Amino acid sequence: LPLGPRNKFLWISTITMAFMLRQIMQSTSSKLVTDHSKIGKKVGDTKNVDFDEYDFVIVGGGTAGCVLAARLTEDPSVRVLVLESGGSGRSLMFTRIPIAFALLLRTKHVYQLYTEPQSDAKKQRKFWPRARMLGGCSSINAEMAQYGSPQDYDEWGKIINDEAWSWKNLSKYFSKFERYEDDARYPDVNSGIKGKGPVRVGYFSDLQNVCRDFVQACTKIGVPLCHDFNTHAGTKGVNRMSESFSVTYIDENRTRVSAETAYLTEDVLNRPNLKIAINATVTKILFEKNGDETKAIGVEFAKTKNGQRYTVRAKKEVLVTAGAIHSPHILMLSGVGPADHLKSKNIPVVRDLPGVGANLADHPVVDLYFKDKHNKSVKHVKPTTIGDIPKFLGSLFEYLLHKSGPLTGNVGEAAAFIRTDDPSLFPDSDFKNKVKDTTSGENGPDLEIFISPMGYKEHARYIFPMHTFSVHCCLVRPASKGTLTLKTTNPFDLPAVDPKYLSAPEDIEKIRRGLRFILKVAKQEPLSGHVDYTYKNKLLDTDREKATDEELEEIIRERVETLYHPACTCRMAPEADKGVVDSHLKVYGIKGLRVADASVFPEIVSGHTTGACYAIAEHAADIIKAEYNLNSKA
Ligand SMILES: Cc1cc2nc3c(=O)[nH]c(=O)nc-3n(C[C@H](O)[C@H](O)[C@H](O)COP(=O)(O)OP(=O)(O)OC[C@H]3O[C@@H](n4cnc5c(N)ncnc54)[C@H](O)[C@@H]3O)c2cc1C
C-alpha cells in the first residue's frame, strides 16, 4: 500500500498488533528434539549403532504426559524421554488467546477424528477433535476448571478396591497440581483449602451480562448458588452453581494455562535428564518374552506414515499417556487387546485383554439457541459479517492493550450442575417418565447446564449471523457406552470410535429434562430480559416451550455432539470387569507397562476431565517414585 496518512495508520496498527501478538506466544524451546536419529536407533540399521537408553519412555506429551515428565525428572538420576506426535502447543497463537481454541480444531495440530455413524442419532458421524501437540487437549480445551464431584472418585476407589483413588486420598493430588491465590473479588472462595501447584487457575476469564443473568435466573427457579465447585463439599446438594464458571485454566496475563506451559517450564526443559522429541509418533510398543513373563522394553516411532522407523529402549518402563483414543489404539497395534479383534487384523496377540477399547464413555451435549434482544453477543470474535470486523479489531486491541474483553472468554462462562431426579426441579406431576439414577452418589449431578454468549454449531465452524446466545445441556453421567476398535493396522490411520450416543433410552429422557430446564430458565428474569421473543427463525429455540416430548427427542437425536471428554477405554478396574490396568496403573499381565491418562478412568466423572487427568498423573508419578525409590525434589 502507498504510504498515505490513512494507510500509514493501518500499517502502524498492523505492525503493532503483530508485535503484541508475538509477545503472547512463547517460543518453542530449542530443547525439543526434532532430529530423531539423535534419540533412537534406525530400524533396519545393520551397523550396531549405539542409541540412547532411557529409564522411562513416555508415549504422548499431552496433559498427563507433561506432568509425568516433569515429576519423574525431579530425580536427576532418572533419564526420561517423551515422544510426542505433534509440536509445541505454546508456540501456537490460538492456544494462547483463551477464546481462540476453536480455530485450531480443524487444523493439522489436531487429530481429525469422526465417530462411526451414530445409529441413535440419525446415522450422523460426529466430529471428535483430539489435540496433537505438547500439552495435548489441555492446549486446546475450553479452560473450564471444574474437577467433577468427590463421589466420582469414591466410586473409583470402590471399583478398583483401593482407597488411594477415593476422594479423601486423591484430593491431595488436585491440590498438588492447581494454584489458586486469594482473589478479593471472590471472598467466598476459601483459598486456604486450595493448592499451590504449577497449574494457575483463577477468575481471569470474561463474563458477559447474559451469562451473569443466567446464574440469577437459575437461582430463582430453585438452584442454590455455589461459590466454588471444587471443594471437599464438591457439588454436594448439587443444585448449586457458581457465580461465573467456577475457575478457569487462564492466568492473570489472560493467556491459557496448559500442561505444557505449567509443567514444561524452562527450568524443567533444561534438565539434562529429560529429552522431549516432537513429531515423533509411537507406532508400537516393543516386548521381550522371558518364560511366562512379558516385559515392555521400548517403543518404535516415526515421523510420518512411510517415514523411517526408529526404536528406543526403556530400561524401567514404558508409560503410555496418549489419551483416551490413542492409548488403547497403541496397545492394540502392539498386540495388547481383545484377542479375537487382534487376530482378525493379523496382529500377533501379546496379551488378550478384552477391556482395551471397551467401555468408551463420553459426555453428550445438546444446545438450544436464543435470539439476543440487546444484540450484545460476542459473535464478532469470529467475524461472519462486515459489521463484525471493526468490532473484532476493537476486541483484539482491547485484549492486547488491556488484557480484557471477550477474547479472554472461554465460551462456557457460567454453569449449573443439577440432578434429573431432583423433585424441586422436575416434579413427578410434570415429569411422568421415571429416570434411573446413574450418578456416582446422592450428591453427584447427572446434568450440567452451561451458557455461552454466542450461538454456534459444528464446533464453532458455523456462527449464527444474528446475535444469539446458546445454552447447552450436557449429560455428565450417560448410561450409553461405546467401543474403540482398529480400522487398519497402520498406526497413522485413526481408529474406529463408536460412542453409541443415546443407545440407552434413559439418556434421552435425562437430556429432555435438561432441555425443559433450559426453556424454563430462559423465561425467568433476569435471563428472559435478554431474549427477543418477537424474533422468529426456524434455527432458534425461542418458542420451543410448547414442544412435545417427541419433538424434543427429535432435536436431541439431531443435535447431539461431544463435550470432548472421551474416557474409560483402558479402564482401571478388575480384569474380570473389563479392566486394563490395576490400581498402580500397570497393564495386566505385562511388566514395565503403565497407562496414565483419561483412558484409565474407571467411570466417567460428572464434570470436566482435565483436572482428573492432572490428578491421575500426579498420583502416578508418586506411585512410580515410591516403587523405584526415586527422589521427589529436583
Ligand atoms: C475442544 C476441547 C474442549 C475441552 N474442554 C474442556 C474443559 O473446558 N475443561 C476440561 O476439564 N476438559 C476439557 N476437555 C477435555 C480435556 O482437555 C481432556 O480430557 C484431557 O486434556 C485429556 O488428557 P489426556 O492426558 O488423557 O490426553 P491428551 O491431553 O489428549 O494427550 C494425549 C497426547 O498424546 C499424543 N499422542 C497421541 N498419539 C500418539 C502417538 N502415537 N505417539 C506419540 N504421541 C501421541 C497427542 O498428540 C497428545 O499430546 C476438552 C477437550 C477438547 C478437545
From TrEMBL:
Lineage, broadest ranks: Eukaryota, Fungi, Dikarya, Basidiomycota, Agaricomycotina
Protein name listed in UniProt: pyranose dehydrogenase (acceptor)
Enzyme class, first EC level, given as a word: oxidoreductase
Catalytic activity: pyranose + acceptor = pyranos-2,3-diulose + reduced acceptor; pyranose + acceptor = pyranos-2-ulose + reduced acceptor; pyranose + acceptor = pyranos-3-ulose + reduced acceptor; a pyranoside + acceptor = a pyranosid-3,4-diulose + reduced acceptor
Subunit structure, as described in the record: Monomer.
Requisite cofactors: FAD
Function: Catalyzes the single-oxidation or sequential double oxidation reaction of carbohydrates primarily at carbon-2 and/or carbon-3 with the concomitant reduction of the flavin. Accepts only a narrow range of electron acceptors such as substituted benzoquinones and complexed metal ions and reacts extremely slowly with O(2) as acceptor.
InterPro entries with a match to the protein in the record: FAD/NAD-bd_sf (IPR036188), GMC_OxRdtase (IPR012132), GMC_OxRdtase_N (IPR000172), GMC_OxRtase_C (IPR007867)
